[in-house]
């Protein structure tokens, strides 16, 4: 396995068993199998066992909490030959729920269902992703991403009629115009732009104080990754970029992106930010970035572990990008 595949949410090699998604009998057989397990989500939060080592919880398929599910589960694949299904129990209403915390940038709240063990809670995946093994992280990311797609794509984009789930959750069909719809993934470039000994960092409005990251942006239709890197960097910072290389990718289920990590060489250094896109940008030297990673920089917090920005910066500092 390439070093680039060790990024969070990558490299577990899950058997997605795509060949049986359209075989309702085979999926039904796995759903009834005694060794199949449920991966459970509540409003996008996976069920996590918080006792260390933390892990994604796998429940029996007849667990009482699954009665809260209002849709058929999504078949995620096979783990060591055993079926894994994602259930959405968002219909459950926890007591003492604080709606102001839900959906925040880093939601610290946890929700505990009375039918679960004390250390089994629904927790925000951004906060817990680095606690999980590669396999747990891939299952959690896959289940969350496709459930979020279903939540926002319940109607046919062609005629507007309500669509139906099919292919074990990996397709929606329109009974009115017979159109077929498939889960979307939004391509995003995130760029390690260097000029000599420095890397270009920026921050978006509303981010926590001290948080800076690599510049990033969506790839537009008809655009290559390399062109997207150059366009996004120039639009956000006014810096021009020459040579561009692809480095690594990361599924990012917030809600449904695939991050393409790229390296680019700046051909200019002057910064002119677009205040609509970002709040600030700066060149940061290797020495300053090492301070930030150590938590000792006066302005910049260390990059968030688990995100591909942290992965790229860490490997830039260690000269292990290639």
Automatic annotation (TrEMBL):
Enzyme class: hydrolase
Domain Nudix hydrolase: start-end pairs: 183-314
Enzyme nomenclature, EC number: 3.6.1.22
Cofactor(s) listed: Zn(2+); Mg(2+)
One matching Pfam family: NUDIX
Gene Ontology biological process: NAD+ catabolic process; NADP+ catabolic process
InterPro entries documented for this protein: NAD-cap_RNA_hydrolase_NudC, NADH_PPase-like_N, NudC-like_C, Nudix_hydrolase, NUDIX_hydrolase-like_dom_sf, NUDIX_hydrolase_CS, NUDIX_hydrolase_dom, Znr_NADH_PPase
GO terms for cellular component: cytosol
Keyword presence, Transmembrane helix: no
PROSITE patterns cross-referenced by the UniProt entry: NUDIX (PS51462), NUDIX_BOX (PS00893)
Catalytic activity: a 5'-end NAD(+)-phospho-ribonucleoside in mRNA + H2O = a 5'-end phospho-adenosine-phospho-ribonucleoside in mRNA + beta-nicotinamide D-ribonucleotide + 2 H(+)
A single GO molecular function term of this UniProt record: RNA NAD-cap (NMN-forming) hydrolase activity
Keywords: Hydrolase, Magnesium, Metal-binding, NAD
Highest taxon, organism lineage: Bacteria
SUPFAM superfamilies the record matches: Nudix (SSF55811)
CDD domains: NUDIX_NADH_pyrophosphatase_Nudt13 (cd03429)
Family listed: Belongs to the Nudix hydrolase family. NudC subfamily.
NCBIfam families for this protein: PRK00241.1
Name assigned to this protein: NAD(+) diphosphatase
Taxonomic lineage of the native organism: Bacteria, Pseudomonadati, Pseudomonadota, Alphaproteobacteria, Rhodobacterales
């Amino acid at each position: 396995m390439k070093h680039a595949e060790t990024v969070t949410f990558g490299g577990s090699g899950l058997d997605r068993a795509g060949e049986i998604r359209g075989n309702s009998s085979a999926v039904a057989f796995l759903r009834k199998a005694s060794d199949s397990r449920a991966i459970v989500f509540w409003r996008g939060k996976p069920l996590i066992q918080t006792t260390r080592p933390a892990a994604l919880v796998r429940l029996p398929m007849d667990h009482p909490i699954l009665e809260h599910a209002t849709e058929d589960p999504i078949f995620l694949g096979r783990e060591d030959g055993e079926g894994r299904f994602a259930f959405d129990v968002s219909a459950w209403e926890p007591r003492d729920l604080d709606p102001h915390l839900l959906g925040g940038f880093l939601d610290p709240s946890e929700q505990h269902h009375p039918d679960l063990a004390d250390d089994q809670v629904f927790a925000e995946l951004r906060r817990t992703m680095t606690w999980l093994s590669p396999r747990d992280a891939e299952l959690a990311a896959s289940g969350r991403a496709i459930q979020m797609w279903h939540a926002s794509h319940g109607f046919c984009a062609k005629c507007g009629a309500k669509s139906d789930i099919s292919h074990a959750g990996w397709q929606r069909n329109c009974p009115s115009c017979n159109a077929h719809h498939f889960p979307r993934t939004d391509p995003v470039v995130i760029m390690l732009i260097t000029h000599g000994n420095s890397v270009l960092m920026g921050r978006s409005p509303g981010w926590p104080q001290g948080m800076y990251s690599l510049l990033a942006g969506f790839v537009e239709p008809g655009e290559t990754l390399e062109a997207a890197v150059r366009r996004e960097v120039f639009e956000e910072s006014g810096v021009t970029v020459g040579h561009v290389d692809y480095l690594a990718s990361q599924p990012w289920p917030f809600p449904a992106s695939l991050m393409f990590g790229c390296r680019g060489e700046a051909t200019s250094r002057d910064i002119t930010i677009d205040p609509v896109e970002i709040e600030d940008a700066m060149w940061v030297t290797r020495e300053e970035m090492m301070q930030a990673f150590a938590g000792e920089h006066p302005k910049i917090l260390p990059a968030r572990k688990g995100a591909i920005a942290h992965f790229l910066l860490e490997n830039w500092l260690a000269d292990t990008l290639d």
